[in-house]
Amino acid sequence: MSPIPDLNQSARDGLRAQLDDLVKKDTDEQLQFFLKSFIMQLGDEWKIVVQLCSHFKQYLADTCNRQDLDVVQAAEFLQRQGRTRTALQRKTELQDIDLNNDNRIAFTEYLLLHYKVMVLTSFFERHQAQPTVDLTDEGVGLTGVGDMLLQELFKVPVGVDAELMRAIEEFVAKQKARDAKIQELTEKAAQGGVKGMTAQTELNMVKNEDMTEMNRISLTLEAAKRRAAKGGRSVDQEAQRIKEEKEREAMLAQQAELERQAEADKLKASRAKLLARAALFEKPN
C-alpha cells in the first residue's frame, strides 16, 4: 500500500477554482463531467445519475432557482432521494461538500454527497491505500473529506476510452434537447384548445419514448469495461469484437428508426383526429 501524498494549499486552491468553474455551468454540463469522471465506477448506476439530474432540474424550477439550491432546499432534496439523515447530519455534511463556501449547493456538489462512498473508494483504490475514513453505512455522518472528493473528481483521466466519452457527450446533448422539448410542449399544452391537446399528445409520446439511447451507451460502456478488463487482444479477437459491436449498434439504430416512424405515424393520426373533431365544432349550422 502507498501513502497518500499531502495536498498543499496551492493545489487545494486550484481544485476549488476548478470547482468554481464547473458549478457555473448548467446542470447538464455538470452531469456530463461527472459521468466522464466516474462512468466506470458507476456501472449501471449511471442511469440513476441521469434521473437525479432530471429531478434536480425539476426541483430547481419548483423552487424558482436557476442553477443551485440553498442548504435548506438541498437538505430537502437529499431526503427526497431516500438519503435519510438526522437534521444535524444533513447540516454538517452539506456544509462539508459546499466546497466553494458560497452557501449554495450545485448539482456537482450534491452528487459528491450522494456518491460520497463511491468517490472515496475510487480515491483510495487509485492511491492503492487503505481507507483512512469509515466508508460504512453509506458514509452517513462522514465529514472532513472535501479535499479527497475534489482530487478524485478532477483527477487526470488515464486510459480513457474516446468512444465512450463521445457517447456520453451525445447522450447528454440529446437528453438536454429532450428536456427542452418537454418544457416547450408543457407550456403549449397548458394553453388548452386544439393546439393544447395536440401538444399534450406529443408530450405524452416524448415522455414515454423508449430508452434506445441508454441501451446504446450501455453497450458502449460494457465494451469499454471489457477492453479495460482483458487488456491486450489478438488482431482476430479485436476484429471480432468490433464486428459484434457494430452489429449491435446497427440493430439498435434500426430499432430506433422503426420506433421513431411508428411514433410519427401515431402522432400524425392523432393530429388528424383532433383536426377532424375541431372541424365538427367549427362547422356552421
UniProtKB/TrEMBL annotation:
Keyword entries, A-Z: Calcium, Mitochondrion
Keyword check for Zinc: no
Compositionally biased residues, Basic and acidic residues: 233-248
One of the record's GO cellular component terms: cortical cytoskeleton
A GO BP entry: actin crosslink formation
PANTHER family with a match to the protein in the record: EF-HAND DOMAIN-CONTAINING PROTEIN (PTHR37009), TOLA PROTEIN (PTHR37009:SF2)
Protein name: Calcium-regulated actin-bundling protein C-terminal domain-containing protein
Record organism: Plasmodiophora brassicae (Clubroot disease agent)
